[in-house]
Specification:
By secondary structure, the protein is of the alpha+beta class. The protein contains three helices and eight strands.
Amino acid sequence: MRWKIVLEGTDEFGSAHRSELTIDKDLECVSAGEIGFSVEDGKTIMAHLQQVVVNQQCEAYVLTSRFCMDCERFRRIKDYGKRKIRTVFGCVEVRNPRIMNSYVHSQSIWVRRSDRSAWLRLPYDGAIARGRRQDRQDDG
């Protein structure tokens, strides 16, 4: 007998994810007294579930951490590596991107006017950027 376990989910951004896992059980196991899933089958199911969930969480984290608050754009990815994360249900290997720094310091930046009515585009100046960071901290 073949069991197919389908895992479907929707992430915070509205993207649908689907994963399938197949477990085969034959009649010889039933005649030997093994009924239902074994502990090994349960470990396989939980390891697969953990792999899917951890990968989705890592992808969501990378997507949100790529956004630059200064230039309000996504930073580029330099390259990818692999990282092993140890969890309760085993070791999960995920893609680990290296994110490049934004180039806002060599360009102009957007600064909100003091009366908060409009945004102004100014050439980058360290003092302006430091003041803008303080404004953000004061608002929070």
